Amino acid sequence: MTVSIETHGACVDFPIFDAKTRSLKKAFLGKAGGTIGRNGSDVVVVEALRDITLSLKEGDRVGLVGHNGAGKSTLLRLLAGIYEPTRGSAVVKGRVAPVFDLGVGMDPEISGYENIIIRGLFLGQTRKQMMSKVDEIADFTELGEYLDMPLRTYSTGMRVRIAMGVVTSIDPEILLLDEGIGAVDAEFMKKARIRLQQLVARSGILVFASHSNEFLAQLCDSAMWIDHGHVRESGGIEDVVRSYEGDDAGDHVRRVIDELEAADRDDRA
């Protein structure tokens, strides 16, 4: 089966049936961003995504940029099938691995080893597949005897190590990644990024929402700027970041890309 993502004029609206409840309106806006409007039934809605049209094929690596609440996470959830388009269409062909919250699917009352298995099952792996990967994932986490202890005894950084180890062990056709890996130390992050790059190389399609321009430049070859629920600009990472954040950010992305290309040439030499 050909791996692909096609959306045409896709919109996602969240209705607010009691629009007079200001706290409810704020809660929706805090989660979804977007603008407030009314649908055909005159119900107040938060227009979280508006007129999203994109076409992705195998090999595409797309980064999503935009402010918090702009709609990046909502778009990932649309592509994962968690949200259905209110209007328009979204057709995704391929096995999807949605990685939105590294802590989802983990139980604080059981051991690290058991959580490795559960987290893998949550991402669509079989128990047999995860059993074959446990030792390798355990070595990657560097948690040693802590893996025999309940997850509730772990720091946030230790939990992220387990989640990262499992996530980077899978082979997805479509990888939807929402960055949430800032709680680990710098040295371990270098190791994690290498595994993430290897994961992306194994993936058919990557859609990655991140606030780290360096990370985007390392993993993606194009970008989309999401602003108040619609695509404001799409194209090369350097150009999109320059439009979104200014020349300094664009220049930084250019330097990262040049360094990666130079390292690749050295590896081939």
Instruction: Please estimate the helix content.
Output: 40-55%
Low-confidence stretches: 28-32
Order of helices and strands: EHEEEHEEHHHEHEHEEHH
SS summary, helix count: 9
Query: How many distinct beta strands?
Result: 10
Radius of gyration: 20 Å
Distance between the termini: 36 Å
The main pleated sheet reads as:
6 strands, mixed
Structural class: alpha/beta
Mean pLDDT: 86
Strand content: 25-35%
* Shape verdict: globular
How are strands sequenced across the largest beta sheet?
6-7-8-4-9-10
Tell me about this structure.
The protein has 269 residues and is of the alpha/beta class. Helix content is 42%, strand content 26%. It contains 9 helices and 10 strands. It has helices at residues 22-32, 72-79, 112-122, 127-141, 156-167, 186-202, 213-219, 237-245, 247-268; strands at residues 4-16, 35-38, 44-57, 61-65, 87-93, 96-99, 174-178, 205-209, 222-227, 230-235. The chain has a 6-stranded mixed β-sheet, sandwiched between helices. A 4-stranded antiparallel β-sheet has the order 2-3-1-5, covered by helices on one side. A hairpin with a 2-residue loop joins strand 9 (222-227) and strand 10 (230-235). Helix 3 packs across helix 5. Residues 28-32 have low confidence and may be disordered.
